[in-house]
Amino acid sequence: MDIITLTLYVANFFAPACFLSLAVSFINFNASSVEPLLGVGGRFLVNTIVGCAVMIGGLIYFGQDGKMATYAVLLMSVGTMQWVLTKGWHVAVAKEALQDEHQLGK
User: Could you read off the pLDDT of 48-71 as tens digits, one per residue?
Assistant: First the structure.
């Protein structure tokens, strides 16, 4: 395998993690005024690192790349990391508080 083929293989191996991280990093799951822990670039970097680690873990665990289970874990891990980085639990707490206030007002 020459250097060009190896470079293309590695780029294609990590491409799902990078593109998913890029797409998710620009999505702000918060509907409130809570500031995320990191900016867009920081979220992209953290999500890419997590995604690449999942891809490597799937390669080690299954012995080959391209397994759907690896992609499922990739989606769950990057989504969970994005939820943590954007403080998604604050939105859930705020919605519960609004529902409680609405029920008490009746």
Answer: 999 999 999 999 999 988 889 999
Question: pTM surpassing 0.85?
Answer: no
Q: Residue 22 and residue 36: Cα distance in Å, rounded?
A: 16
Q: Is 100 in contact with 58 (CB distance < 8 Å)?
A: no
Report CA 48 to chain centroid distance, whole Å. 8
Most confident of the ranges 2-6, 25-29, 62-66, 93-97: 2-6
In this structure, which amino acid lies at residue 40? Answer: V
- For the chain, where are the alpha helices, taking DSSP H only? 3-25, 40-62, 68-85, 88-105
Return d(Cα 87, Cα 22) in angstroms, integer. Answer: 18
SS3 label, residue 39: coil
